User: What shape does this take?
Amino acid sequence: MSNHDATKAKIHELIAPFNVKDAELKDEATFMGDLEWDSLTVMDFVAAIEDEFDIIITMNMQAEIETIGQLVDAVAKLQDQ
Assistant: This one.
C-alpha cells in the first residue's frame, strides 16, 4: 500500500464517526454537500486529522479543500514536507 493509499484509508477511518448521513466516501464527495457537515463538524474533523497526522492545516488550506480527494492530497503533501 502506497503512502497516499494509506493516508486515504486513515482519512476514511477518521471520517466514519462524523459520517452520520452514511454518505459514500468517494474522492469527489464534498464535506458540506454530500456529508452535510456544518462548520463546527469541519473544525472538529480538522483537529482530528491534524492530531492523527501531526500536521497543521491552515485556514487558507481549509478554505480550498472541499472534497475528500482534495483532503487526501493535501495531507499527503504536508506529510512529505
User: Anything to note?
Assistant: The chain has four helices and no strands. The first helix runs from residue 3 to 15. The mean pLDDT is 94. Residues 3-80 form a domain with the Non-ribosomal Peptide Synthetase Peptidyl Carrier Protein; Chain A fold (CATH 1.10.1200.10).
